[in-house]
Structure formats: C-alpha cells, structure tokens
Amino acid sequence: MNEFELIAYARAGDEAAFTRLVELHQTAIYNLCYRILGNPAEAEDAAQETFLRAYAQLNRFDATRSFKTWLFSIANHYCIDHLRKRRLTWLSLDQPALAPHPALREQKPGPEEASMRREQKAVVEALLAKLAPEDRSVVALRYWYDLSYEEIAEATGATVSAVKSRLHRARALLANILAAGPEPLKQLGRSVLAL
Amino acid sequence: MMISNPPPDWMQAALDGELSPAEQAQFERQIAESPEARAQWLALVEVTQLLGAAPLAAPRPGFSKRFQARLAGRRSRTRLLGGMLALGLAAPVGMVILVLLIIGKLLPTMLIAPSPAAWLSAQATAIALSLADARAIVEALATSVFAVAGPALSHPLTWVGLTFGGVIVIAWFHLIRKTTWEITIL
User: Fold this and answer.
1) Per-residue pLDDT for B73 more than 90?
2) Among A132, B13, B20, B100, which is most buried by a count of CB atoms within 10 Å?
3) Taking the CA of residue A157 as centre, how many other CA atoms within 13 Å lie in the half-sphere pointing to its CB?
4) Chain centroid to CA B124
C-alpha cells in the first residue's frame, strides 16, 4: 500500500493505516524535533504529539501536497511553541537561559575514531544550540532533509526570502563560532570531516 | 592590484550553487586573492559539511507502539472529559431547578405556617402523598405502555421509527465525540 492509499484508509478511520504512516515518518519527525529541541525525551514527546495532531487533523490535510512536509510543519510549530514555553519557565525561575554545551567547554579532544562520531554529534548539537529556534528548524530542514527553500517555507510558514535570510544568518553565525571557538572544537570539526 | 572581497551574498549563493559560471569564476578569483575572504569561505564550507555529514537521529524502538498507547490514553481521557463536561453542565441546571422549587413551592407555605413544627409535619404529609401519587402514576404508565406496546410493536412503522431514532442518536453521539476529541487534542 502506498502513502496516498494509507492516508485515504486512515481518513476513513483505519488506525492501522495511520500507524503505518507513523512508522514511515517517525525517524524524520523525531530527528527534526531532536535537532530543534536538543533533548531526546522532549524530542520523543514532540514527535508523538506531532502524530497525534496529524491524526486529529487528517481531514484537513490537502492530499495534493506532501504529507511529510505537512508533518514537518506540525512538528516545527509544536517545537517552536514548546521552546517558547520552556524559555518562559526558565525566565520565571530566574535561571540562565541556556548553559553552554559541554562540547564547547571541554578542552580535551576525543582521540579515538569511535568516540569521534559521538563527538561529532556533540559538536553539531552544540552548534545548533547557539541558534534561535526558528533558525535551527530551517537549518535542520535544509541539511537533514535537503528541502528546497520553497518546501522549507511551506513547512515553517515563513516566506522564501525569510527562509533564505534565516539560513544565511545561521550559517554565518555557525561559521564564526567554529572559526572563533576553542581549538579542540575546530580540530574536532576537521577530524570528523576527514573520516 | 587592489584585492576586493566578494559580496557577502555571494558566499551563501555559492554554497547553494546559485552563482552563474561567470560569477563563480569571479568569486573563486576573489577568494584566492583575499586571505580574509578565503578564511570566511572555508569556515562556511566546514559548517555546511559538518551539518551535512551528521546522521539522522532515530527514536527508541517501539515508537509506533507508544504512539498507539498514547492515542488510546488520549481517547479515554476525552471520554472522561466529555462525561465531566456533561455532569458539569447538568449540576448547575439541577441546582437552579432545586432552588426554584424551594422558592416557589416551600417558601410560601413556610411563611403562612403557624409554627416550624407544624410546617415540618405538613411537609412530611405532603411528601408522603406525593410519593403515593408518583407510584400510582408510574403504575398507570406501565399499564398503558404494556397495553399500547403490544399492538404497536407488531406494526412495521414502529420499527422504522425506532431504527431512525437510534441512528439519529448514534450519529449525534459520534459527532459530539469527534468534536470533543479534536478540541482535546488541539
């Protein structure tokens, strides 16, 4: 059964068909949530909520458009809202907004190739954590899903020029962080790319 | 010869492969000539490669099972919410009816009673009479229903009416449930 048929069955109330759609897109949606939120537990919760909302609104989905982009749109909005609420909670508790990621503070480089992979994950997460939530989602949609500017605009609800501007700003900021960051971080980035 | 840096937008356009061949050639010349621009360009390329090389993060196994459990939990919560909503609406309506009954029925008798004991006694008698009346009414209704139901159930139109009524009730409940479900989720 293809995606189009699964959507039709799910719309008719077939829960198994929707579960199959969940299985098809769970990694993509989880990854986007994880890249925006930076926390596995919150990403799991956000991805689950994304599918629940999609299930509840399935009749409103325009079948002429991409189902995956529609899911991205729901996930993106949920995560941005979640981050805003999280920020408000932090502010109300008078805590620092975001502690620097250990990978940015740590001075010892990972010598092993196996640990390099883990370090790469930490570097990417640390870099993403430096971005505004809206910029983070644009970067994730561009680099992990290779979406066009138009598709990113559809998923985020922004204009194409706003998407371009966010991506340009994010890349420039990340490049500056990487260039000006601690030497181990720079070395790590290069070693990871050399693998 | 004076070295000019490429326009800032060109670096981003070059990353996205959006420069024309002529622009690309000019860009490469400028990058080669300006150490500052080259450093900036290399940092951008590095970031792009780093992000592009990062794998997809996958959820823990059993994600769809957890989704099904959450869906079932949300549904039962919705039903509970619907029940509480109905109860919440019924309770104030019941209270209003009770208050109106007390004011309209009991207050006038209380005002004209010679003493509280006499009023209580009169109320007890009235309640006993009302209960006897209610019982008589229920018995009369049951007798009537049995008398009418027998011949009516043998008529096909009765069954058509009952089926139609049943369908209307089921459709109504389905609509209410679906609406409440969407409201709860969103």
Assistant:
1) no
2) B13
3) 11
4) 47
With CA atoms as reference, report the closest residue to A131 among A103, A165, A163, A167: A167
Low-confidence ranges of chain A (pLDDT < 50): 93-110, 184, 192-195
Neighbours of B71 (CB within 10 A): 19
CB A3 within 8 A of CB A67: yes
Other residues' Cβ atoms within 10 Å of the Cβ of residue A39: 14
**0.80 exceeded by the pTM?**
no
Taking an 8 Å cut-off on Cβ atoms, the answer to whether A22 and B40 are in contact is: no
Q: How far is B42 from chain A (nearest CA, A)?
A: 9
Rounded to two decimals, the ipTM of the complex is 0.75
Binary contact (A53, B186; C-beta < 8 A): yes
DSSP letters spanning A43-109: HHHHHHHHHHHHHHTGGG--TTS-HHHHHHHHHHHHHHHHHHHHHHHHHHHT--S-PPPHHHH--S-
